[in-house]
């Protein structure tokens, strides 16, 4: 399975729609996208993971790296995830305390966390 990425702007947020698998093979593609967005001045990101089928530790590392990158610019990174199997990974690793995780893109954009 491959990784699909697309971005769009909603207000002052940049939404990164991710689909497929985020693993050791595809995570570098996501990392490049996040780095490019932050370097281009997009410091408030919403990563939409509704179409993600699989997430491994490499993918988690990329998301944590993206969070550190935006925080260094006084920005934010919110996740959209409503799949129990993916949410379980965030719970087990304790990352639910690190990332604001929302049910929908609209909810993530409207949130003040």
Automatic annotation (TrEMBL):
It comes from Streptomyces radicis. CDD domains: STAS_anti-anti-sigma_factors. Keywords: Phosphoprotein. Belongs to the anti-sigma-factor antagonist family. Residues 3-112 form the STAS domain. Gene3D superfamilies: STAS domain. InterPro entries: Anti-sigma_ant, STAS_dom, STAS_dom_sf. Positive regulator of sigma-B activity. Non-phosphorylated RsbV binds to RsbW, preventing its association with sigma-B. When phosphorylated, releases RsbW, which is then free to complex with and inactivate sigma-B. The keyword Cytoplasm does not apply. Pfam families: STAS (PF01740). This is Anti-sigma factor antagonist.
């Amino acid at each position: 399975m491959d990784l699909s990425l697309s971005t769009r702007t909603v207000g002052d947020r940049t939404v990164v729609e991710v689909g497929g698998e985020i693993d050791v093979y595809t995570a570098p593609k996501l990392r490049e996208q996040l780095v490019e967005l932050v370097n281009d001045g997009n410091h408030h990101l919403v990563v939409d993971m509704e179409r993600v089928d699989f997430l491994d530790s490499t993918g988690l590392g990329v998301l944590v790296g993206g969070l550190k990158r935006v925080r260094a610019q006084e920005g934010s990174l919110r996740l959209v995830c409503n799949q129990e199997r993916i949410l379980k990974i965030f719970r087990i690793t304790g990352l639910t305390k690190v990332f604001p995780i929302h049910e929908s893109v609209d909810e993530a954009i409207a949130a003040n966390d």
